[in-house]
Amino acid sequence: MNKGYTIRIKGQLVSLDKPLVMGILNCTPDSFFTGSRMQSEREIAERANEIIAQGGDMIDVGACSTRPGGAVVSEAEERDRLRHCLAIVRREHPDAIVSVDTFRPSVARMCVEEFGADMINDVAEGEEPGMFETVAALRVPYVLMSVQPTLRESILMFARKTQILFQMGVSDVILDPGFGFGKTLDDNYAIFSELEKFHELALPLLVGISRKSMIYRLLDITPEQALNGTTALHAAALLKGADILRVHDVREAVETCRIMQKIREGCVK
User: Fold this and answer.
1) N or C: which end of the chain has fewer CB within 10 A?
2) Helix, strand, coil shares of the chain as percentages rounded to 5?
3) What is the spatial distance between Cα 130 and Cα 104, in angstroms, rounded to a whole number?
């Protein structure tokens, strides 16, 4: 499924003809998957190195856990965590593509202006006042995530808000269906079953399902036991046209992408 999508990063066009893998680096003490919690300098450096060594295309840095029932840290705390983390990531991999997972416009601006963050990954549908204006001024790709419970409502929201973004001059918008956000388990699978319909909006699609509750609750296991289910859904998402996978387990996702890409190549011969 060659859709011809590109995103502009560091002044260059990055092709999405082959799916990209975004590795998660959470500099938090309370992310839902304990294996993703990195706080010390050594832990952050090792995780950044691991993502790149295992073939990850991007590092997604987050400092404010969005797990259900989790406490939202203050803006000052989020800034401090990100300054600590991004300084280490940039020291270890100055040329890496770095995405920042935040819903706060001022935090997004700080990350881009002080550390050269390349992408803003917003889990709040751009509802925080000033986010769209900030992204337009920063001129970086923007991940718009849905917290809507149905495919129809998600597509309607995406259509409305992407039009606003385009009018403001944001040229690189990536859509994220928001699995696990504002959705029941059944809602998640209903949307996933029709994932390809998001391509009617002609924009790149990011899928973040790694070790989430839609896997471990369905299978009655823990997030730590959800790698097999994650890989199964990653393969299905790629068949349905996912362009970016946001993952905890980078090597496994990269291998899945390579296998699915080979299948695609065989289908078009």
Assistant:
1) C
2) 45, 15, 35
3) 9
Q: What integer is the mean pLDDT of 132-154?
A: 98
Q: Please state, as a whole number, how many other Cβ atoms lie within 10 Å of the Cβ of residue 160.
A: 9
List active site positions. 212, 246
Give the Cα separation of 194 and 197 in Å (integer). Answer: 6
Helices marked H in 19-168: 41-53, 75-92, 105-115, 131-138, 151-167
Alpha helices in the chain (DSSP H): 41-53, 75-92, 105-115, 131-138, 151-167, 185-193, 213-219, 227-239, 250-267
Rounded-to-integer distance, Cα 132 and Cα 105, Å: 8
Place of tokens 């299978």: 219
Q: What does the pLDDT look like over 144-180, one tens digit per residue?
A: 999 999 999 999 999 999 999 999 999 999 999 999 9
Spatial contact of 102 and 121, defined as CB atoms under 8 Å apart: yes
